[in-house]
Structure formats: C-alpha cells, structure tokens
Amino acid sequence: QVQLVESGGGLVQAGDSLRLSCAASGRTSSSYAMGWIRQAPGKEREFVAAISWSDGSTYYEDSVKGRFTASRDNAKNTVYLSMNSLKPEDTAVYYCASRGQFKYDYWGQGTQVIVSS
C-alpha cells in the first residue's frame, strides 16, 4: 500500500498563492505518477494536475494551466502543487492520489483550500 499525507491548505484571498504538499510512504515503487484532484462543495471530483515520478511530465486541467504547477522531489517521495493567482472557484478539498498501472489506487485525506473574494 501507499500512504499519502497532504498539507498546505488554508484560507487565502483571491490572487494569493498556496503550495500544497503530498508526502508518500509505503510501497511507493508501485506508483507511476501522482495526481491532484479537487472536490468543491456540491460538485464531483475534478482532475487538476498530474506528474510522472520518472520524468516529471505534467498534465493540467485547462482552468489551472498557467496558474498551477506540479513538481516532485523523488528523494523525499513528495509532490507539490504550487497554486498562484487563486480564484474563488478554486475553493475545494484537494486530494493527492497515487496512480498505479491503470488507475489512481491510493488517496490522501485531502486538504481544504478556501479562496475568498
């Protein structure tokens, strides 16, 4: 199994920045990539970004391109999501998830991000 612990959420104002962290432990060799997924109140979970452990390739949902940056520190088994120019619509619980060969197998507990206008 892979254990994931997120941190870094909080309450900020529109236009501010935050950096989320996700530390992975356990059977991390089974993880090909890490994803960031968010869920706003009353809405379904939404893919935000993903990053490959091997080559650092990144993927972003259109609404966060140019504002969010995913990065990783392989030595620390930790991934980050740097969020700039935050908007009220970015308010959500942000989860990191470990992707195995076919799907996201393991999820963190989530960290709340609230962006006030």
Topology:
Blueprint: E1 2-7, E2 10-13, E3 18-26, E4 33-39, E5 46-52, E6 58-60, E7 68-73, E8 78-83, E9 92-99, E10 104-107, E11 111-116
Parallel strand pairs: 2-11
Antiparallel strand pairs: 1-3, 3-8, 4-5, 4-9, 5-6, 7-8, 9-10, 9-11
Give a nutshell description of this structure:
The chain has 117 residues and is mostly beta strands. It has strands at 2-7, 10-13, 18-26, 33-39, 46-52, 58-60, 68-73, 78-83, 92-99, 104-107, 111-116.
Q: Can you describe this structure?
A:
This protein has no helices and eleven strands. It is mainly β. The model has no long low-confidence stretch (mean pLDDT 96).
Number of beta-strand segments: 11
User: What is the gyration radius calculated from CA atoms?
Assistant: 13 Å
Oligomeric state of the chains in view: single chain
The helix content is: under 10%
In percent terms, what proportion of residues is strand? over 45%
Structural class: mainly beta
